[in-house]
Design goal:
By secondary structure, the chain is α/β, with parallel strands linked by helices. It folds into two domains: 205 residues, Rossmann fold (3-Layer(aba) Sandwich), CATH 3.40.50; 96 residues, GMP Synthetase, Chain A, domain 3 (2-Layer Sandwich). The protein has eleven helices and ten strands. It has a five-stranded parallel sheet with strand order 3-2-1-4-5, with helices on both faces. Strands 6, 7, 8, 9 and 10 form a five-stranded mixed sheet that branches. The two termini are 20 Å apart. The chain binds xanthosine-5'-monophosphate (XMP). Xanthosine-5'-monophosphate binds next to helix 7.
Length: 334
């Protein structure tokens, strides 16, 4: 949702006087200033935010909860392509701990029905992007007196409006949604957003989480998504993440996940012939996502993960380890 309701004729520029935020004190000063600005701008109005649970939208949510409390309505759309437990975490942190006005929409069936039989990667992205906007608009339409739309735009989104995020993310809200934008993080770099998130009291798993694509697990279930293969992606990813965390690799390896491709091979399970999918492990490091190198994951750890995935995840009888850097492989499979 980087493109939006206000037509920007020229790119905004971070004020030269703005020091890089690295300390808690600087983050607190930033928060105080932005809380004041948001209160002044929003007044007694109401503001809407699409809260995915990603770092940027989570930090905006926490900041605006502090600024205007229940005048902020967060909408979390679960498109059925979230990682295991992710939507529950959003509800727990924002509704239960921070007291946010949070609307939770489980739109899993809607998305998966729309995606049934859609195999082309860009068409999948388009379907997901468009359906997201439709669900969001329908929910927004049920609310009255919304004058503002908050967004987690950060400075690299402005600098690289032709860069990786803009390239990947289809959509944005349509022109006719006339809401005034509230973008308190627009001049921050990612590392600064994390410092601010930490100062706002967000949990580490939210502030330091690895990047996760908008179309979610959908691009890790190559070709036409089926519910059973999607579950195999979700469960194998959860095991991989759990084992990386236990091994102290979370936050050290830039991005790691599993992919379950749409082919089957023969194996043996419980002394019987099996014919099931493989799960592919991808673990990479990068600075800017334009190039990436593979993480040399410890062999014992890989064997442990392989053993757990083949034992615990229905439909998987093999685990493969992707040794491809970017280029030639992209980080995701679609
Ligand atoms: P690739 O696969 O192009 O990915 O090497 C580079 C980075 O971009 C993320 N990515 C996406 N992010 N929407 C997103 O928000 C997308 O459609 C998308 N596709 C890839 C990917 O996870 C990696 O961090």
């Amino acid at each position: 949702m980087s493109e939006n309701t206000e037509k920007k004729t020229e790119k905004k520029v971070r004020p030269e006087s703005m020091a890089r935020i690295t300390t808690r004190e600087q983050a607190e000063a930033f928060i105080e200033e932005e809380v004041e600005k948001a209160r002044k701008k929003i007044g007694s109005g109401n503001v809407l935010l699409a809260l995915s649970g990603g770092v940027d939208s989570s930090v905006v949510a926490a900041l605006l909860i502090r600024a205007v409390g229940k005048q902020l309505t967060c909408i979390h759309v679960n498109h059925g392509l979230m990682r295991k437990g992710e939507s529950d975490q959003v509800i727990e942190v924002f509704r239960n701990q921070l007291g946010a006005n949070l609307i939770y929409i489980d739109a899993t069936d809607r998305f998966l029905d729309k995606l049934a039989g859609v195999a082309d990667p860009e068409t999948k992205r388009k379907v997901i992007g468009e359906e997201f906007i439709r669900v969001f608009e329908e929910e927004a339409g049920k609310l009255s007196d919304i004058g503002f739309l908050a967004q987690g735009t950060i400075y690299p989104d402005i600098l690289e409006s032709d860069g990786i995020k803009a390239h990947h993310n289809v959509g944005g809200l349509p022109e006719e949604v006339k809401l005034e934008l509230v973008e308190p993080l627009e001049f921050l770099f990612k590392d600064e957003v994390r410092v601010v998130g930490k100062a706002l009291g967000l949990p580490d798993f939210m502030v330091y989480r690895q990047p996760f694509p908008g179309p979610g697990l959908g691009v890790r279930c190559p070709g036409a998504i089926t519910r059973d293969r999607l579950e195999a992606v979700r469960e194998s990813d959860a095991i991989l993440r759990e084992e990386f965390e236990k091994a102290g690799l979370a936050g050290k390896v830039w991005q790691y996940f599993t992919v379950v491709p749409d082919f089957k091979s023969t194996g043996i399970k419980d002394s019987r012939r099996s014919f099931e999918w493989p799960a592919i492990i991808r673990a990479v490091n990068t600075r800017d996502a334009m190039t990436a190198t593979i993480e040399r994951v410890d062999w014992d750890l890989l064997e442990k993960i392989s053993s757990r995935i083949t034992k615990e995840v229905p439909g998987i009888n093999r685990v493969l380890y992707d040794l491809t850097s970017k280029p030639t492989g992209t980080i995701e499979y679609e």
